Amino acid sequence: MMKIFMAGKYLPLLCILFAHQWLRGQIDFPALSGPYFGLKAPVEKASVFMDGIISTLNEPEMCGVFSRNGREFYFNALCNDRWMILSTREVDGQWIKPKPLPFTSNYTDRDFTLSPDGNSLYFGSNRPRKKNGLPLSSLDIFVTRRDESGKWSSPENLGSPVNTDFNENYPSVSSRGNITFFSQCEDGLGGCDIYISRLVNGQYLEPENLGPAINSEKNDWDGFIAPDESYFIFSSQDRDDSIGGQDLYISFRKKDGNWTRAKNMGPKINSAFCEICPGVSLDGQYFFFTTRRRGKADIFWIHADIIGVLKPDKL
């Protein structure tokens, strides 16, 4: 799945809000309680997450993210060609039906991540850079922040030097505030490369290409950086060792600060189909990703022990 943004027809909000099965009321949410819906992730091999409930049978979903306490869950759903961010949480001991985040609008909001403290949400969008402006023809990275009452702020464009006139998407943020993302900048090693912009004194520095240990002459995108920056997981297209069209790869930070050469995460994760959108729950327990092995995008999960299994003995 080539995830290059293409601007589509501008749709009325009412049309978007009733597009997905969730929002049409066609899926009943079961009575579930406890952290992580009361479920435990598989260990031996990844499987579909909340089959027929979150990962629905007919429409695509991706980018599953749990809060640190496991009592909030966020994900993307495609609604009339627009990706929107939905959330559900446990209230009075029971999980409530997912609904769009309040800043949802007529724009595409996709490929998001929560900051390690859970109070900032970064995402790619074609919404205007300035109030009352026109929708973008490419994607920029935006951020919304949650106040003490739990309310999310109006999204803010991260601006230069992170955003350019090219596509920037799939942000991931470490505990230091450093942000990784993919871009179609012309100085890359391939079609799309992954970059990091370091946060210094509240300002993002000029993005740095993560280099040939991670990027290739192919398309490299959808990167997740560990909160402590000890490992990095991303999707890459058509490498020599790929199992399918797009596979997930992992790289570990060595003692000297450089990255190990990216390693295919293997058949417990990857398949003959496309695997994208990696992420780990904020408590580090569960690893999530998106795959098209059922014919459309679904969220899959596995216990995060898989990351330790893939870690080299010496770094």
Report on this structure.
The protein is mainly β. Residues 1-18 have low confidence and may be disordered. The chain has helices at residues 13-17, 305-310, and strands at residues 47-48, 61-66, 72-79, 82-91, 94-95, 99-100, 109-114, 120-125, 140-145, 156-157, 168-173, 179-183, 193-197, 199-200, 203-204, 208-209, 220-225, 231-237, 246-252, 263-264, 275-280, 286-291, 298-303. Helix content is 3%, strand content 36%. It is globular and about 50 Å long. Strand 4 (82-91) and strand 5 form a beta hairpin. It has a single domain (13-310), classed as TolB, C-terminal domain (Neuraminidase, 6 Propeller). It starts with 12 loop residues before the first helix and ends in a 5-residue tail after the last helix. The chain is built from two helices and 23 strands. The strands form six sheets. Strands 2, 3, 4, 5 and 6 form a five-stranded antiparallel sheet that branches. The longest helix is centred in the last third of the chain and has 6 residues, at 305-310.
